[in-house]
Inverse folding.
């Protein structure tokens, strides 16, 4: 029995974490085993790599180094958590995956798609989400929400609005290229309406 792999994507402040938890609860109510996880991170080793990627320090992190760290964490996460869960029939809900690398390191940092695709082939050969929910909101709206949180912003969250405009544009480009997998959800609506829209897509997968 093979599980379902669902990823949630979007820039900071679009409500991914809230919706992921709501979707998890509904799937569990329906009798499914559900694994919720995140990227970068998701396993002890991958979380240590996450800290290297996101911590703010005096030394700069070149785009190539950031890209390689992201895929190092992803390779560990995929092998040690995602694939085993899918193989035993669980639903995996993952907060970001390789689409985020195309958006942040590609759109945001300017790394070419070919380089990202090559590393994806090494890190998770043959594995792609069954469904990707792209929660979308204008950058100004999303960043105002994100910057109203109590916790301090990490290195990537501290980027400029221009950076996030590029990230959002890349996400929407990905959605246009792969509409069967990537479903865009208007994240400016109230939380219940966003959840209802997301759940309709999960129901199509058999939730």
């Amino acid at each position: 029995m093979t599980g379902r792999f669902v990823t949630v994507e979007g820039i900071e402040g679009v409500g991914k974490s809230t919706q992921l938890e709501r979707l998890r609860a509904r799937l569990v109510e329906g009798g499914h085993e559900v694994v919720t996880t995140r990227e970068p991170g998701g396993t002890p080793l991958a979380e240590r790599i996450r800290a290297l990627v996101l911590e703010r320090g005096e030394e700069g992190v070149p785009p190539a180094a950031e890209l390689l760290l992201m895929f190092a964490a992803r390779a560990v996460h995929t092998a040690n958590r995602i694939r085993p869960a899918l193989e035993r029939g669980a639903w995996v809900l993952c907060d970001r995956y390789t689409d985020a690398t195309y958006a942040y390191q590609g759109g945001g940092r300017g790394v070419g798609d070919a380089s990202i695709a090559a590393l994806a082939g090494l890190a998770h050969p043959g594995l792609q989400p069954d469904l990707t929910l792209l929660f979308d909101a204008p950058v100004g709206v999303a960043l105002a929400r994100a910057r109203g949180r109590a916790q301090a912003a990490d290195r990537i969250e501290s980027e400029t609005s221009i950076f996030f405009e590029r990230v959002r544009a890349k996400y929407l480009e990905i959605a246009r290229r792969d509409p069967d997998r990537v479903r865009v959800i208007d994240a400016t609506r109230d939380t219940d309406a966003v959840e209802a829209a997301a759940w309709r897509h999960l129901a199509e997968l058999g939730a």
Observations:
- The radius of gyration is 16 Å.
- The helical segments are 16-29, 44-54, 63-87, 98-108, 113-123, 139-146, 161-177, 191-204.
- The beta strands are 4-9, 34-38, 91-95, 131-136, 182-186.
